[in-house]
Amino acid sequence: MTDRESAKETAAQLRRQIARTRSQLGETVEELAGRTDLRGRARARTADLRDRAGAMTVQLRSTAAQASHTLQERATHAGHSARGRALEARHSARDKALEARHTAQDKALRAGHTAQDKALRAGHSAQEKALRAGRSAQGGATDAGRTAERRVPAPVRGPVRFALRHPRPVVIVGATGAACVAAVILGRRRAKH
User: Fold this and answer.
1) Long-range pairs for 128-136 at CB < 8 Å and ≥24 separation?
2) In 152-192, where does DSSP find H-type helix?
3) What b-and-e string marks burial along 149-168, b requiring 16 or more CB atoms within 10 Å of the CB?
């Protein structure tokens, strides 16, 4: 290596070292200037705090919206649940009312059938009594008619003989009288109850 080449190399090394030193010196100066620049540091700190506050505001709004949505869902669920319970109570009350109505109708029908059966039995009994009374009256009338025929004066004997020969009208009159008597008795019994 020649002296010239070595001098060129040394000069290049010196230039590089000078550039490095300048760069380090510039960084050191900037750092020192940054430490002494209180206004700049305060602005940077303010900007940093502003950014943090903005981020926190966004986060709080998101959390509040999420909480609002959760509360709204819970309220909706509670409303549906309450509505379901109200509908169940309404259906239960309606079912109970229908059941009570059917029970009352059944009891009324049974009571009506019982009263109808009693009335039919009483009617048959009264009818039988009226028929017996009519037959008895017919027999008595026939006997009385024969007796009366013998004892009655001659002008009345014609109608008496007619009654004896045609007993049906006499029976009808007697049965009608017995039925009237039975109706009066039943009416009095019902009035007592």
Assistant:
1) 129/178, 129/182, 130/175, 130/178, 130/179, 130/181, 130/182, 131/175, 131/178, 133/174, 133/175, 133/178, 133/181, 134/171, 134/174, 134/175, 134/178, 135/171
2) 154-165, 167-192
3) beeeeeeeeeebeebeeeee
Q: pLDDT of 82-124, one tens digit each?
A: 888 888 988 888 999 889 898 889 888 888 888 888 878 887 8
* Contact (Cβ atoms closer than 8 angstroms) between residue 34 and residue 40: yes
Nearest CA to 94 out of 105, 83, 86 is that of 86
Q: Nearest CA to 179 among 132, 139, 138, 143?
A: 132
* pTM (predicted TM-score): 0.33
Closest CA to 176 of 168, 188, 166: 168
